[in-house]
Amino acid sequence: MLDRLNQAMEHIESHLDQPVDVEGLARIAMTSEYHFRRMFSALAGLPLSEYVRRRRLTVAGAEVLAGERTLLDIATRYGYGSGEAFARAFRTMHGVGPGEARRTGAALNSQPRMSFRLIIEGSSSMRYRIVDKDAFRVIGKKVRVPLVHEGANPAIAEFIRSLAPETLERVAALADQEPAGIVGVSDQLDPSRAEGTELDYYHGVVSGAEVPDDLDSLDVPAGLWAVFEDSGPFPQSLQYMWRDVFTQWFPSNPYGSRPGPEILSVRLSDGGARGDAQLWIPVERSAG
């Protein structure tokens, strides 16, 4: 998997002066466009579109300093519709406009080329199982929140505090299948997975029951799920588990992620400082 991802990275590098063909990159990596975007974001730590933008402006910066092309030629070559748009993007990355950079030979910022390798750490093992699950629905209360990568999500915490105890009791009584009990469900995440982008968060249960009029629901089709289990400090342990799933488990297993919600079941202990977590991620068998 990582070899194919690195072939896609080479393709990006040799086509920086052309529009990004994410579907073509996914074909090179022998995976779906959806999984390619998610894998790239997890491994690189930034969205694919942002990496390509930075690489283009890095190469464009070198051409600006070289002085062999006009600034408008460079802007057009790297996909900017006008000199003004190019100058704004250039200044955002480099802290100086292209004209001033050429006149003064200013020091510019650089986005290094990326390649990926898998580091296997044998000190811990990842507990997982594959579940072929029938269609079900999530029933509970929904809110739109920003994505937070590190630490607790304050918007989700505030939303949960706002739910009446009697509402939670009614929701909990509707649970009739795995994962059991109250769960947190993330859906409609932005493909970039960039911090601050928004998602739908459901605080509810997995159920086959009818939906009460005052509750929200999400219908989920049948499919395969990878179920990961972890215990440790909350929420750090969970966030590290999600990272490890995409940076270690997916590259070394014959599965790719598919569109669908992510489901988290957490049982807190020690005053909420630690938790036993289950993370359900929709997957499909890889084509390669």
Structure description:
- The chain is of the alpha+beta class and 288 residues long.
- Helices cover 38% and strands 25% of the residues.
- Strands 1, 2, 3, 4, 5, 6, 7, 8 and 9 form a nine-stranded antiparallel β-sheet that branches.
- Helix 5 (71-77) crosses helix 6.
- The longest helix has 19 residues, at 48-66.
- It is elongated and about 70 Å long.
- It starts with a helix and ends with a strand.
- The model has no long low-confidence stretch (mean pLDDT 89).
Q: Helices, strands, pairings?
A:
Layout: H1 2-14, H2 22-28, H3 33-44, H4 48-66, H5 71-77, H6 83-94, H7 98-104, E1 127-133, E2 136-146, H8 154-162, H9 165-172, E3 183-187, E4 198-207, E5 216-220, E6 223-233, H10 236-249, E7 255-257, E8 262-269, E9 274-285
Antiparallel strand pairs: 1-6, 2-4, 2-5, 3-4, 3-8, 6-9, 7-9, 8-9
Keywords:
single chain; alpha+beta; 25% strand; 288 residues
Unreliable stretches, pLDDT < 50, 5 or more residues? none
Sheet bearing the most strands, described?
Answer: 9 strands, antiparallel
Structural class: alpha+beta
Question: Could you give the order of the helices and strands?
Answer: HHHHHHHEEHHEEEEHEEE
C-alpha Rg (nearest Å): 23 Å
Provide a count of the helices: 10
Please state roughly what percent of the residues sit in beta strands, choosing from under 5%, 5-15%, 15-25%, 25-35%, 35-45% or over 45%. Answer: 25-35%
DSSP, total strands: 9
